[in-house]
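Example for tutorial group B:
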């Protein structure tokens, strides 16, 4: 081996993994209006940070329970996206892991457990989503993403 130099670039941002849940009920998906420094007042799917040692499925179930008091089942991986938030005060990168799930009990209704993060939950038709969407969701929708089984 010769003389090799490895240069590691410094970054001022952070990298996080978010698990995003496409909770399906009929032809509808669950969306909430965000109250957050990222995407405030936009509509988003339920989501949250992956905790150390947690599977994507465990994270999806935990986040739905924490945010809406809903129990979910039939959790499946759909797609993964890479999202850079460069224009924020603290630049960050989110790897978003999109999961599909259904209600464990179809009679359950979402509760707004974390009102400081969400203005409330509602069921929306995939082909008639409310505006404005949180931009990572808007991007996958524009790219043809569809969480419903074909």
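The residue assignment follows.
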């Amino acid at each position: 081996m010769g003389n090799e130099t490895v240069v590691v670039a410094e970054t001022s941002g952070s990298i996080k993994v978010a698990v995003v849940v496409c909770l399906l009920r009929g032809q509808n998906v669950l969306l909430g209006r965000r109250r957050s420094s990222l995407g405030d007042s936009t509509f988003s799917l339920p989501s949250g940070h992956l905790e150390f040692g947690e599977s994507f499925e465990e994270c999806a179930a935990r986040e739905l329970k924490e945010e809406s008091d809903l129990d979910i089942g039939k959790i499946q991986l759909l797609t993964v996206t890479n999202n850079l938030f460069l224009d924020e005060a603290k630049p960050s990168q989110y790897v978003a892991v999109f999961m599909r799930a259904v209600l464990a009990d179809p009679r359950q209704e979402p509760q707004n457990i974390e009102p400081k993060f969400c203005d409330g939950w509602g069921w929306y038709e995939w082909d008639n989503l409310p505006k404005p969407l949180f931009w990572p969701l808007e991007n996958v929708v524009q790219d043809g993403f569809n969480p419903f089984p074909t």
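The longest strand covers residues 72-85. Compare this with the pattern of hydrophobic and polar residues in the output above.
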